[in-house]
Specification:
Shape: globular
Largest sheet: 2 strands, parallel
Strand content: 5-15%
Distance between the termini: 37 Å
Strand order of the largest sheet: 1-2
Number of domains: 2
Helix content: 40-55%
Order of helices and strands: HEHEHHH
Radius of gyration: 17 Å
Number of helices: 5
Number of strands: 2
Structural class: mainly alpha
């Protein structure tokens, strides 16, 4: 829930900027009624995989984008294992890693 609270305002359409997503996708680690209830109270739809069901729910196609991005960030060894004691330094290195990934992707186009 703190992650959802830190989403910045996203402008683009006429009116008040959006501060919450339409849908939240999550894996089996978040399969609890507490999370479903909190998301429902905020007016956010959820797609959370159930623990007792077989794999192949279709969430992998969507979550693959997130996992691939984590793999790109883990090429930078300081981000793979959190060596920084201060959260602001880790967040700065994370932003720098994201900038380098975007720059390399745009350079290859």
């Amino acid at each position: 829930m703190p992650l959802l609270d830190r989403i910045p305002a996203v402008a683009g359409r006429i009116g008040r900027p959006r501060r919450r997503p339409d849908v939240v996708y999550a894996d089996r680690g978040y399969d609890h009624d507490k999370y479903r209830r909190l998301l429902r109270e905020r007016g956010i739809r959820h797609r959370i995989a159930r623990r007792s069901t077989a794999h192949g729910s279709g969430l992998g196609r969507t979550r693959w984008v997130v996992e691939r991005t984590f793999a790109w960030l883990h090429h930078y060894k300081r981000l793979a294992a959190c060596y920084e004691r201060r959260a602001d330094l880790h967040e700065a290195l994370l932003a720098l890693g994201c900038c380098l990934i975007c720059w390399r992707h745009l350079r290859s186009l």
